[in-house]
Design goal:
Number of domains: 1
Strand order of the largest sheet: 1-4-5
Distance between the termini: 32 Å
Number of strands: 8
Largest sheet: 3 strands, mixed
Order of helices and strands: EEEHHHEHEHEEEHH
Oligomer: single chain
Number of helices: 7
Shape: globular
Low-confidence stretches: 2-42
Structural class: alpha+beta
Mean pLDDT: 83
Length: 231
């Protein structure tokens, strides 16, 4: 795991925008940058065309404001691109590791072991912390983390979460992807896994919680989590 202050990142200029890099970009003009979700968040670009499709809905629109049709279009796009993004994820991992792409919990645990050593965060300044404390409800002021995930890590959380969802489909009987349509849910309009019992498994939230445990030195308890998912 890497901890860096914001000023320690190297800035480079790409197509007019200043971006923060964890690793260098391997320029390949044959790859459509706008259709490459990992490139868009500044991760290493593999010399391979994965056939990513552009999103059918304007990504600047908050997902909570999607119409029913827009949510369905994004859901279909997400499921269609999942295998491609998972392939990309494993190609990215295998730049430094050797993990075969399999849809099982044992492979997921190997991916998480790799992820533990590749999380990057930036620390917040005291001024930023004071602002957040003042804006937060009093009951939450003592629980505001003094760090934030870098864009690279946020993207990995999403992509590994998608892979985890596919693993759950394979490993847990009678599970499937659905759109969370409960408006008060933090995963409203997002893709989640649902079990036969109706219990929802919000994969991105699960990955965010795992990530915070790693950063804060708390036992992630993956084996226990897997056991509970399979009940």
């Amino acid at each position: 795991m890497f901890f860096k202050k914001k000023e320690e990142f190297k800035e480079e200029k790409i197509e007019g925008d200043f971006v923060t890099f964890k690793v260098s970009i391997n320029e390949n003009p044959s790859i459509n940058r706008q259709q490459d979700p990992l490139y868009n968040k500044h991760l290493y670009t593999i010399e391979k065309d994965y056939g990513f499709k552009p999103t059918p809905v304007d990504e600047s629109k908050p997902i909570e404001q999607y119409t029913k049709k827009e949510a369905e279009l994004m859901f279909e796009w997400y499921l269609d691109d999942l295998p491609k993004r998972t392939e990309y994820l494993f190609d990215y991992i295998n730049r430094t590791e050797s993990i075969e792409l399999k849809y099982d919990f044992e492979t997921f645990k190997k991916v998480m072991k790799w992820f533990e050593n590749n999380i990057t965060v930036t620390y917040k300044s005291e001024k930023e912390m004071d602002i957040e404390r003042n804006l937060a409800p009093e009951i939450a002021r003592g629980h505001i983390p003094n760090y934030e995930f870098t864009e690279d890590t946020l993207l990995l959380i999403v992509v590994i979460g998608g892979y985890l969802g596919q693993v759950m489909i394979q490993e847990i009987l009678n599970t499937k992807w659905i759109i969370d349509k409960y408006k008060k849910s933090p995963t409203y309009n997002r893709a989640v896994i649902i079990k036969e019992s109706g219990f929802k498994l919000p994969i991105t939230t699960i990955m965010e919680n795992f990530s915070r445990c790693i950063v804060e030195g708390i036992d992630v308890g993956i084996d226990e989590a897997i056991e509970s998912w399979c009940l």
